[in-house]
Amino acid sequence: MVALKTAGRGIVVEGPSGIGKTTSVINAIKDAGLAEKVLVLSARKADEVELIKELPKQVPFGVVVIDDFHRLDRKVKKQIADLMKSLADDGAAHSKIIILGITNAGQTLISFGKDLANRIEVIPFEANPEYKVEELIKKGELALNININIASDIVKDAQGSFYLAQMLAYNTCLRAGILKWSESLIETQESHESVKTQVMTALSRIFHDTAISFARGTKLRREGRAPYLHLLYWLSQSKTWVINAEREADRHPEQRGSVSQVVTKGFLEELISSSDDLQKVLHFDNTSGNLAIQDPQFVFYIRNLSWPQFADEVGFISLEFPSRYDFALSFAGSDRDIAEAIFNCLSENELEVFYDKNEQHRILAQDVEEYLAPIYASDAQFVVCILGPDYPKKIWTKFESSQFKQRFKSGDVIPIVLSSAPLGVFDTATSVGYLPWDRASVFEYQLKNVVETLLKKCAETRSSRRHEFDGDNNFLTEQIALNLVAE
């Protein structure tokens, strides 16, 4: 209330969708006696976005509420940030901006100017406490003269969302045939699981294809590490309906490379922006790196998915990754061009690849031998050694090969032998199948052949491992425990 009455001071109200932000703000505005001067604009509506863009030219404009601020493009967000700073500096009594957005909307706004932090009021809305949700359900029961027998279950499933509580209570009433106020008190006799199943069936018709589309990403890479699917799963576990993609990747080392790839190269943002259906339920802010859910119904849907069944339907060969890396590259510096090209191609196919240049910040200040030894000895499913004429001469390649040489027998080492290197100098490497590379031939053509072969090898291994698990009655349970819930 103080911020509402402070001349020029902007307000940001942030939090998950469906918890009552808009209603609370409108009520507060009425209590402050400002209701007659309020214009509510939504970033979801194209014509109203045009009005938002014109605000800097329309001063004075009274009180303007901008809903779904996070959906505005970066340029417009900056214009609004600059305007809010100007109004605060002038102590303008004639104009005030109130922003409504998802969690961390204030952080995004402040990113356009750190000095804005002291000029606006950021009010975080968290999930409603259970007693508030109980009060909401009780009001509905009194209005209809009923008792909902699964009210406590609805409160837990709602996880602080008024919208979800209303949705579940509504479906409970439908199943019980309650459509209006009853003269005599009615006690429902519905099963909690039956209500959830009914809701999930209805939501599946709305969200199934959208969820599948996101989980597959810009292109389904069946042998890959499913970065989009894991992002969606991590979102389903978030109480605030938002995650920071990079931080989640750091928390899950086995997914770090594939998730970082789709985030830093813009693939995640491109995927969401290319689909109207995805934009309705998800929002990615490339400034903060936050991925958020916008629709409370979608939250309920992904929280109650059978994830092993869903992952299987998406089409990945396997979600069981026993190794931190799919491939580790070993090479002499003179062959870095080949190594880097292979790394880039494998990473684009959503595989985890150890490549020293990409790990410098992690190796820094570490005992290098202790850091590298387990990677080549066991942490990578396969070691790809690029055997050029300088390979036997370098200290680090000698060290790396000493760690993985015992793995030749198990088929975990894939040599790429350059035509300029005499085969005789590689001993064990020449006794197994290898990939040839001729510096005199077309680089891109050889790269394509090598990468395709490595992808097939990875897919074959994933598939055989999956078949082993398929023979186990606990396969689905193990997939959840090992791959999706691993924290």
TrEMBL record:
Gene Ontology BP, a term: signal transduction
Pfam family, one: AAA
Residues annotated as domain AAA+ ATPase: 7-126
MF-aspect GO terms: ATP binding; ATP hydrolysis activity
Superkingdom of origin: Bacteria
InterPro entries documented for this protein: AAA+_ATPase, ATPase_AAA_core, P-loop_NTPase, TIR_dom, Toll_tir_struct_dom_sf
Name listed for the protein in its UniProt record: ATPase
Species of origin: Dechloromonas aromatica (strain RCB)
Lineage: Bacteria, Pseudomonadati, Pseudomonadota, Betaproteobacteria, Rhodocyclales
